[in-house]
Specification:
The protein is α/β, with parallel strands linked by helices. Helix content is about 40%, strand content about 15%. It has a single domain, classed as Rossmann fold (3-Layer(aba) Sandwich). The protein has an 8-stranded mixed β-sheet with strand order 1-2-4-3-5-6-7-8, sandwiched between helices. The chain is globular, with a radius of gyration of 22 Å. It comes from Luteolibacter arcticus.
Length: about 325
């Protein structure tokens, strides 16, 4: 009996040593949290991680994805930075009202993101701008230059160069004439083949691209009424090039430190759109990657390393 008691005491002591003590009152700041707030009656979903007192990084996703595109980048930054990645209306886990209930324009997407930053208390932030995230983020930056500490640009345009290729011809036709016929020519981009094309074209190794990407995106695109949402935004994209001179003036006047991490094989926003930033921005850290549109999928670890070094330098952390 004495021997058994000693054994039980020994096992209990070992268990106490091996089990970490947690009060339950000290959350891990690097844990990714999944939150929703009301903005103008819409549920806007966002991912958030990192110490709230740390420099903030606002991650703005592209088409046709959502904050899901940052699922690996967020924890890679969250030990030192306060990271926030929203889903726009019509994307991810945010509300997707019909086109009759919400006017899907880039002005309105930017308004929603602006109100989100104000509601959750982001007073200053760096912005990661990708694809659709570029016209959303540049609207914010031009309107509130004092809030933007740095820019991280990945395959998102602010110049005419790079949106003059074959991909854009049917899109430009839709800007010029918003007809059913012109809209139908863009619907293949909303199919599973179109989605896979975006993720895999231009990559070094297609087997490195997780099917979780289109597995997340396509069911959301296939929701009733969502194709009309996407067509509305295809048309609204035509509102962006006329704003390019305003955004370029913002670059010249305010000179935000800028990191460019661009997939050079992108068939939508090719490398021709990356180089012109160097005309107007004096402090540019410029990198082209041998990959496609969604550069984070193949080169996320290296991009995260560059972002950390860039933010460490320019945000004082």
């Amino acid at each position: 009996m004495k021997t058994k008691l000693l054994c039980r005491l020994a096992f209990a002591a070992l268990a106490a040593i091996a089990t970490p003590v947690s009060s339950g009152s000290e959350p891990n700041p690097s844990q990714v949290l999944h939150r929703t707030v009301k903005i103008d009656g819409l549920d806007i979903f966002y991912r958030e991680a990192g110490p709230r007192e740390a420099p903030a990084v606002l991650l703005l996703h592209g088409f046709p994805t959502s904050s899901h595109m940052f699922r690996n980048l967020i924890p890679a930054l969250a030990d030192k930075y306060h990271v926030v990645a929203p889903d726009y209306p019509g994307y991810g886990y945010s509300s997707a009202p019909s086109v009759a209930e919400f006017d899907y324009t880039f002005d309105n997407l930017a308004n929603v993101v602006e109100k989100l930053t104000e509601q959750i208390g982001l007073k200053e932030y760096s912005i990661y701008l990708m694809d659709y995230g570029a016209p959303v983020g540049f609207r914010l930056a031009a309107k509130h230059p004092g809030r933007v500490r740095t820019l991280i640009i990945q395959n998102g345009n602010a110049y005419e160069e790079g949106i003059d290729n074959d991909f854009w011809k049917p899109v430009r036709a839709y800007w010029k004439e918003r007809s059913e016929e012109n809209g139908d020519k863009l619907r293949p981009l909303l199919t599973i083949d179109g989605t896979k094309w975006q993720y895999t074209t231009g990559v070094r190794n297609p087997e490195a691209i997780s099917p979780d990407t289109w597995g997340h995106v396509q069911p959301l695109l296939d929701r009733p009424g969502n194709q009309e949402i996407q067509l509305a935004l295809f048309h609204s994209y035509g509102s962006n090039p006329p704003l390019y001179p305003k955004w370029q003036e913002y670059f010249r006047k305010h000179q935000p430190p800028t990191l460019i991490v661009w997939g050079k094989n992108d068939q939508i926003f090719p490398a021709a759109g990356a180089h012109p930033y160097k005309r107007d921005l004096k402090n540019v850290d410029f990198h082209l990657f041998d990959t496609g549109h969604f550069a984070l999928e193949e080169d996320g670890a290296e991009i995260a390393r560059l972002i950390r070094g860039f933010l460490d330098k320019h945000t004082g952390k």
